Here is the input.
Amino acid sequence: MPACLLCQSQIQIKLTLPWLLSWQPMRRPVVCDRCWQRFESIKRLHACPGCGRAQDQPTQCLDCARWPTLAGFHNEALFRYNEAMQTYFHQYKFSGDYQLRQVFATVFQQAVCQRIAHTAAIVVTIPVTLATMQTRGFNQVSGWIPTIETAAVLTTQATTKLVPQSKKDRHARLLTPQPFKLTTPTDITGQSILIVDDIYTTGRTIRHAASLLLENGAKSVTGLTLAR
Here is the structure.
């Protein structure tokens, strides 16, 4: 029996009649039901249409009301950034446990594919700094979408290690200057773009990326994050 990547308990595989009749290969689960249920999904009907924050009504939240309009940009988030998600990111992103990419790979890839299926949008990941890549060894978002083609049109401007966003308070995050630059400006002219990132906190990072892409000819830009 496979072991849960989060708690290492043995996972009981349940054989269902629909699966037996489908003649499809079995997908080995990587997370037990108990651990998976600790993550809280966000439904569109109960989320801010601007940033994806979970709330009672699909109305603009106070955070989004403070931001100037950005040419139709909006973000969707799949899960709440609750205690379980915080623990996950600590292990995956900050401790560098790359095998944990498998926890959300299927659900995140499906979400990306659903959003680009009818728009022909190109997928752009938020890049990490060279220092982060050398320390961690991977881009955490790319780890979730290994089979999806992405466009490497963004890179970081930093030449030295900066204070990580996770170490800043809200005020410091909002004051963060534009951290990105384009690598191939002509590749995005007239294109619809889906930016994918890990966490939407204040929105400063993904909005910097969106504004840069729009300023350089992108037709439209939307965002998708795992957590909010």
Q: What stands out?
A: The helical segments are 17-22, 33-36, 62-66, 83-94, 102-116, 130-136, 170-174, 204-215. The two ends are 33 Å apart (CA to CA). Strands lie at 75-79, 122-125, 154-156, 180-182, 192-199, 220-227. The chain has a mean pLDDT of 90.
